[in-house]
Design a protein that fits this description.
Distance between the termini: 78 Å
InterPro entries: Crtac1, EGF-like_Ca-bd_dom, EGF_Ca-bd_CS, FG-GAP, Integrin_alpha_N, NOTCH1_EGF-like, UnbV_ASPIC
Domain EGF-like calcium-binding: 488-535
Strand content: 25-35%
Number of domains: 3
Shape: globular
GO molecular function, one term: calcium ion binding
Radius of gyration: 25 Å
Keywords: Disulfide bond, EGF-like domain, Signal
CATH topology of the largest domain: Methylamine Dehydrogenase, Chain H
CATH class of the largest domain: Mainly Beta
Number of strands: 34
Number of helices: 6
CATH architecture of the largest domain: 7 Propeller
Protein name: Cartilage acidic protein 1
Structural class: mainly beta
Largest sheet: 5 strands, mixed
């Protein structure tokens, strides 16, 4: 087929491009969300100028934090207007060899039930050196700050939150990875295992990377992105390792436990000097593409593009595509991002370059998919800023549910736009649901006239009385719950005899069901996806004996084995 990008616009900025510390402006608003200023083609509605950290144009200009406080001593000097950063974090932030990637989130529960504080926390993945430069989590010191006078004091609460790790921090992605709505943190690291910090809802996190199979301890992570590649309603993770195998992890669950399984093909996982990794639907055909931005490091290293094709009842297939002009085999890539620059509904690609050689920025227009439908959704916080950390689910008439995360970290060296972009192919949206990190949910219908447009979803306001839920068309495989939300229909319960005799076991899936044979497996094994074979269960599911303990259970004389071993050791000592 033709190339994905056929037109390039390049421009040098300031002669030489530097690749030092990543710096972002974080809005002081919103619920558990994150960072980045608008890049959407649609002009968002202006916010009336407010007192505090807002510019005259109405755009929020700085960052806030959650409700954890540290009291200021009465004899401490009164801070002057501006943002005060903890000394250790300030030193780290000024060292280009340490600060690697920041992200915004609200790790603490709201100050009031179901009401966000409207402030961000800043997570910083540092590149530690010995016992210097742990990962940081900055929040606003409420007692020492006076936002109305422009005074914001930040305090590092990483130790209390359990995320002050010493490692080679690289990429960060933040969103409801394991949680229903709260922000979790995934960090891929260099010279150490990755982290998957699960939000406990009390201001603390617990690292579940090893338990879920994401630790990858011997690789060196770089770019990372969150997406739902198989459309099962779970957040999957794709990331690149520096000159190591790239990973595409699908989130799986069984018995209430979660694991991630790598489905990367040999071509997809082929090592490269990767920087940023993107996951987006560039041609609006409902299938996500993954773009690897590489740097010509000790030789040519072209960028690469893959399409992840969803398949019913099996893993997605992976197809390599021709990225066209965006191949850039001699490009010294330092980052990549997507947005719709010209408002035509097709995502465009921007690449930055630099490192040890000056190269211009490159902007590529999407060249395929002009006839496909699309929808772009922009959730807002209670103050009108972009709702970093929100989850958007779009229900369609024929293709089921599509999930997007408004990521607050979005990888390595670059920040993604705070927009949920959906390619629809020839399908149409029927309804959508936005979940904010504080648990608030808005469900609304999508009219046919709203196809191929940008929708802004305001944060739900408290209203007197209980309004009846609006009628929604949820699409195939889903039905509207009495609370007004579209939920997965359990076909196995509603239609007990839906499966044929040769495959009588019905398994409910997200938006559908599948049938498998009634194969029974011995302890420690489970039926494969299609039920045709028994496969070993993953060890970290827990509750199953190890290989050594299974040996004892199978041996009829196992109670005598310790006695025999003891006698052998005794005779050896003699």
């Amino acid at each position: 087929g033709g190339s994905q990008w056929g037109e390039q616009r390049s421009r040098a900025v300031g002669g030489r491009l530097s690749s030092g510390v990543i710096a972002h402006v974080f809005p002081l608003v919103g619920k558990p969300h994150r960072c980045r200023m608008p890049t959407s083609h649609a002009q968002p509605s202006r916010i009336a100028p407010r007192r505090g950290l807002h510019s005259a144009s109405g755009w929020p200009e700085s960052v806030g934090c959650s409700a954890t406080t540290k009291e200021r001593h009465p004899q401490d000097p009164v801070p002057s207007p501006g943002i005060s950063i903890p000394q250790a974090s300030a030193q780290t932030a000024g060292d280009p060899f340490r600060s690697r990637c920041p992200a915004c989130l609200s790790p603490h529960p709201p100050a009031l039930p179901l009401q966000g504080s409207g402030r961000y926390a800043i997570y910083i993945a540092n590149y530690a050196s010995g016992n210097l430069g742990p990962h940081a989590l900055l929040e606003m010191d409420v007692a020492a700050s006076d936002p109305a006078r422009g005074i914001v004091v930040l305090v590092d609460v990483a130790a209390e939150a359990g995320v002050n790790k010493y490692t080679g921090g690289r990429g960060v992605a933040v969103g409801p990875i394991l949680s229903a709505s709260a922000s979790d943190i995934f960090c891929d690291n260099e010279n150490g295992p990755n982290f998957l910090f699960h939000n406990q809802g009390d201001g603390s996190f617990i690292d579940l990377a090893a338990r879920t199979g994401l630790d990858d301890p011997y690789q060196h992570g770089r770019g990372v992105a969150l997406a739902d590649f198989n459309r099962d309603g779970k957040v999957d993770i794709v990331y690149g390792n520096w000159n190591g195998p790239h990973r595409l992890y699908l989130q799986m669950s069984a018995g209430g436990r979660v694991r991630f399984r790598d489905i990367a093909t040999p071509k997809f996982s082929m090592p490269s000097p990767v920087r940023t990794v993107l996951a987006a639907d560039f041609d609006n055909d409902q299938e996500l593409e993954v773009f690897f931005n590489n740097i010509a490091y000790r030789g040519s290293s072209a960028n690469r593009l893959f399409r992840i094709i969803r398949r019913e009842h099996s893993d997605p297939s992976i197809e390599e595509l021709n990225p066209g002009d965006a191949l850039e085999p001699e490009g010294r890539g330092t980052g990549a991002a997507v947005t719709d620059f010209d408002g035509d509904g097709l995502l465009d690609l921007i690449l930055s370059h630099g490192e040890s050689m000056a190269q211009p920025l490159s902007v590529f227009r999407g060249a395929q998919g002009a006839g496909n439908n699309w929808l772009r959704v922009i959730p807002r916080t209670r103050f009108g800023a972009f709702a970093r950390g929100a989850k958007v689910v779009l229900f369609t008439r024929r293709s089921g549910a599509h999930l997007r995360i408004i990521d607050g970290g979005s990888g390595y060296l670059c920040e993604m736009e705070p927009v949920a972009h959906f390619g629809l192919g020839q399908d149409q949206a029927s309804s959508l649901e936005v979940t904010w990190p504080d648990g608030r949910v808005v469900a609304r219908a999508v009219a046919s006239s709203e196809t191929n447009s940008v929708l802004e979803i305001p944060y739900p306001q408290d209203v007197g009385g209980q309004l009846p839920p609006a009628s929604l068309e949820c699409g195939q495989g889903f039905s509207q719950h009495e609370a007004g939300r579209c939920l997965d229909t359990d076909e196995c319960a509603e239609f007990p005899f839906v499966c044929p005799r040769e495959k009588p076991v019905c398994i409910n899936t997200y938006g559908g069901y599948r049938c498998r044979s009634n194969r029974r497996c011995s302890r420690g094994f489970e039926p494969s996806e299609d039920g045709t074979a028994c496969v070993a269960q993953v060890a970290f599911f827990g509750g199953y004996p190890s290989a050594g303990s299974q040996l004892w259970a199978r041996c009829p004389l196992s109670p005598l084995l310790p006695l025999g071993l003891g006698l052998c050791l005794h005779f050896y000592a003699l």
